[in-house]
């Protein structure tokens, strides 16, 4: 089972003793704030975790994988996430038994 | 926006919360997400996106200087995929028009 906002709310409730409503407000504000900054075209840098950056994609040819029909994929702006060195090391730490 | 600006903005939005609480909560959220990824758990935040772990298998590489073959160990990379809402809000070009690709 994937982790969702509900689990994060529970975690804050347990670890901080915030009431559920406050915990929910913070969790929602956390993701809304990141999202609205990216929507404004601003990158988001969370030290120790990673950076959300924006990339401008040029139009490029593509095709519908189902039908094989060629179409042009329009120019667009997309979000990419780059994990920080710290997070990368952390997720590789436990079982990098090589 | 940096982490400290994020904390400041959440505080502005919820003046009833203490800045100490918001700061601690932000740290705990990021730690929790990091721990989940380290445990190979998927994270799904509706409207925002999902984080999952991508595993790059160990492979035989070469030292580019000497040409000597070396084993490159397995690498785990956190991956983020933007959710529909985030994707649409960020893409200035797609103002309610068709999104050509899924993936």
Automatic annotation (TrEMBL), chain A:
The keyword Glycosyltransferase does not apply. NCBIfam families: himA (TIGR00987), PRK00285.1 (NF001401). Heterodimer of an alpha and a beta chain. One of its GO terms (molecular function) is DNA binding. The lineage of its organism: Bacteria, Pseudomonadati, Pseudomonadota, Acidithiobacillia, Acidithiobacillales. GO terms for cellular component: cytosol. HAMAP family: IHF_alpha. This is Integration host factor subunit alpha. Belongs to the bacterial histone-like protein family. This protein is one of the two subunits of integration host factor, a specific DNA-binding protein that functions in genetic recombination as well as in transcriptional and translational control. It holds the Pfam family Bac_DNA_binding. Keywords: DNA recombination, DNA-binding, Transcription, Transcription regulation, Translation regulation. GO terms for biological process: DNA recombination; positive regulation of metabolic process; regulation of DNA-templated transcription; regulation of translation.
From TrEMBL, chain B:
Gene3D superfamilies: IHF-like DNA-binding proteins (4.10.520.10). One of its GO terms (molecular function) is structural constituent of chromatin. Pfam families: Bac_DNA_binding. The keyword Iron-sulfur does not apply. Transmembrane segments: none annotated. The keyword DNA-binding applies. GO terms for cellular component: cytosol. Keywords: DNA-binding. Belongs to the bacterial histone-like protein family. This is Integration host factor subunit beta. It comes from Acidithiobacillus sulfuriphilus.
């Amino acid at each position: 089972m994937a982790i969702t906002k509900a689990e994060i709310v529970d975690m804050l409730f347990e670890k901080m003793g915030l009431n559920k409503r406050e915990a929910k407000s913070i969790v929602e504000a956390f993701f809304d704030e990141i999202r609205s900054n990216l929507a404004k075209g601003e990158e988001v840098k969370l030290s120790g975790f990673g950076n959300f950056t924006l990339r401008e994609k040029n139009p490029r040819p593509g095709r519908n994988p189902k039908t094989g029909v060629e179409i042009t994929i329009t120019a667009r702006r997309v979000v990419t996430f780059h994990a920080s060195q710290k997070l990368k090391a952390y997720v590789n730490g436990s079982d990098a038994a090589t | 926006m940096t982490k400290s600006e994020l904390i400041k903005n959440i505080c502005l939005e919820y003046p009833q919360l203490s800045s100490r609480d918001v700061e601690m909560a932000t740290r705990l959220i990021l730690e929790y997400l990091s721990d989940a990824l380290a445990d190979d758990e998927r994270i799904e935040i509706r409207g925002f996106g999902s984080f999952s772990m991508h595993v790059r298998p160990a492979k035989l590489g070469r030292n580019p200087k000497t040409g000597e073959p070396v084993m490159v160990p397995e690498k785990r990379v956190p991956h983020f995929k933007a959710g529909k809402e985030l994707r649409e809000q960020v893409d200035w070009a797609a103002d309610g028009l068709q999104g050509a690709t899924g993936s």
